[in-house]
Model the fold of this input.
Amino acid sequence: MQNITVIGLGKSGFSTLNYLLKHYKNSNISVIDTRPTPPNLEFVPASVNLHTGSMNHEILDSSDIIITSPGIDIRQLSKKYTNIIGDVEFFAQELLKKDKYPKIIAITGSNGKSTVTTLCTEILQKAGIKVSLGGNIGTPVLDVIDDNYDAYVLELSSYQLETLKSLKTVSAVHLNLSPDHLDRYDDMDKYNEAKHNIFYNTDLAVYNQQDEKTYPKNNINKVAFSTDNAEYFIKVENGISTLYHKDEALLNENEIGLVGQHNLLNILATYALISPFNLNDEQVKQAIANFKGLPHRTELIYENNGVKWVNDSKATNLGSLVACLDGLKVQNTLHLLVGGDSKGADFSELKPLLSKFKLKLYCYGRDKEKLLILDDAALSFETMEDSIKALAPTIEKGDMVLLSPACASLDQFKNFEVRGDEFTRLAKIYG
Ligand code: UMA
Ligand code: ADP
Done:
């Protein structure tokens, strides 16, 4: 009998467990979660050997396969256990056993993953293709394996890519690299190394011409996107940005619902990723035109007395705050709320960008000290709510209150969505 161990009882671990209970009925299944009271405990059947509160090497030593969750740092574990894989690698191995292999698009990068993943999925759906999205975006891949999909669009984090070897993709992109997760990786190169696994077994590697860190390392079939000088590029004509593929105009900025230069790049990457599907041009254009973006990404959530309240709670790292500020138009004062868990980042490169604004900077949360140094007049608060209460009496017509924290939310919130919802609630009370 095979011994299979799942590490983690979060979304991925629980999804893996359910898959195993259904498809590996003749195996001994164990689950380890280092947290004393992990989620989903009450749903673990008695037949499963469960250990919580610490790592259990006895169980690991006797395992034939160890399937880990993305949130587990496997640097040490993988030295001892060569049979450790992530849930996405397990998904890929299971797909290989099927009669028909689906067409898969895979997406990574420090920022823009969810936007590109959702956009690709909507385009394929509109074209009538039976497609599912999955991965880091929030739907564990093993939850969507059984449904006989013809295609998948997978958002993959560096964590999920660490052990990935078996996934075959029709196209794969590395969108960009900026500092993130430096509490988990020894340095930026190690972080990027994991991301490059996205190109391991793809028919078309899509990369960002302006970001050398994304260039595919091997001589594979590849295509680049960029503001200029690439196969997919942007041409500014009479002040209007138009997206091009070679000499073919695709669409212009007035025909889309997304804002910001970074989103134009996201759309170019999307065009490259869906190219293997040979879809109808007009249908693709319509799907992109109708896409209004995802919540919590530079989203205008409230406007009162000429003050705009913008929720960019998904800005969980330096690069996403930089993208948000790039080209941002504010008539009067920008009230910027930053803070939370910095994941080991150094924010000093923000200083010149911030100096372009009439700025009031409010720092809160666990790593606020690292942000306070960005502006001599920066204000320090315990929480986001305290910051908002303090700024509310000072706001004037033409101001913008922007939550773009450049940090993870986990020190004070369940996740970035809860942080964004809380910001929206407070905006409506104090704004
Ligand atoms: N944990 C322990 N001990 C354990 C197991 C987990 O302490 O034994 C902790 C982890 O350190 C982490 C938390 O529990 O702090 C959750 O980890 P998990 O691996 O159980 O997470 P899941 O609930 O399975 O969610 C994961 C992804 N989370 C992470 O990678 C941390 C989700 O991405 C993803 O949507 C989900 O799988 C489905 O694929 C979230 C995320 O924050 C959005 N991703 C990071 C990011 O985008 O920056 C990479
Ligand atoms: P991810 O899934 O990689 O976190 P999202 O699409 O959810 O990416 O966007 C996260 C944040 O990054 C948002 O604040 C958004 O404004 C910003 N962003 C989106 N696309 C890009 C990009 N191509 N480059 C830099 N920042 C981006």
Notes: The chain has a mean pLDDT of 96.
